[in-house]
Amino acid sequence: MLLESESIMEKKYEITKNGADDYTLKYKDQEIKFKSSIQLVNDIQEANKKARIKMIMELSKEGMSLKDFIKEEKKDGKTYYDNTNKAELEKIYIEQETGQIFMDTIKNMLGKDYQDLISEIGLETEQEILEFSELLGKAIVGRFPS
Questions:
Q1: Residue 14 phi, psi (nearest 5)
Q2: Phi/psi of residue 123, each to 5°?
Q3: Which run of H or of E encompasses 90?
Q4: Within 13 Å of residue 35, how many CA atoms lie on the same side as its CB?
Q5: DSSP assignment of 23-60, as one string?
Q6: Residue 70 CB: number of other CB atoms within 10 A?
């Protein structure tokens, strides 16, 4: 029994598992069939390496290196290194690379740009988009709940 203050949230999409590796994404009047692939897992595992290489190359073009992002402080005869800026820069590059891999996979598997898909489905909030991305990601790699 619903209280007056509760509302029923309309389901904007549905992902169904049709077989071992076969899925269907349904929304509005659209129905997109796709197969899961472990290639995304392999690509994401390579993302860290690709992101670091890209970061180093871009820094080199600017005449910089990762050492420029490490703070060195000498105190009481000891040398301390703060890698916070270096770690943050690496994180940014890795997130960009991982995101691009996910976007490319969506386009290849579903035949649609990820941002266009989000708009077509009508997802508006960050929470809706995160939930959809997580569910779709699980389906793509074959870890979708039955």
A1: -145, 135
A2: -75, 130
A3: helix 84-110
A4: 5
A5: EEEEETTEEEEEE--THHHHHHHHHHHHHHHHHHHHHH
A6: 14
Query: Which tens digits make up the pLDDT trace of 23-34?
Result: 999 999 999 999
Are the CB atoms for 117 and 129 separated by under 8 Å? no
Query: Phi and psi for 71 in degrees, rounded to 5?
Result: -90, 130
The whole-angstrom separation of Cα 52 and Cα 133 is 25
Give per-residue pLDDT as tens, 43-59.
888 999 999 999 999 99
11 to each of 20, 29, 99, how far by Cα in Å? Answer: 24, 13, 25
Residue type at position 54: K
**What does the alpha-carbon distance between residue 109 and residue 72 come to, in Å, rounded to a whole number?**
47
Tokens of 109: 């598997």
pTM: 0.72
For residues 17-47, b (16+ Cβ closer than 10 Å) or e, as one string? Answer: eeeeeebebebeeeeeebebbeebeebbeeb
| Distance separating alpha carbons of residues 99 and 92, to the nearest angstrom | 11
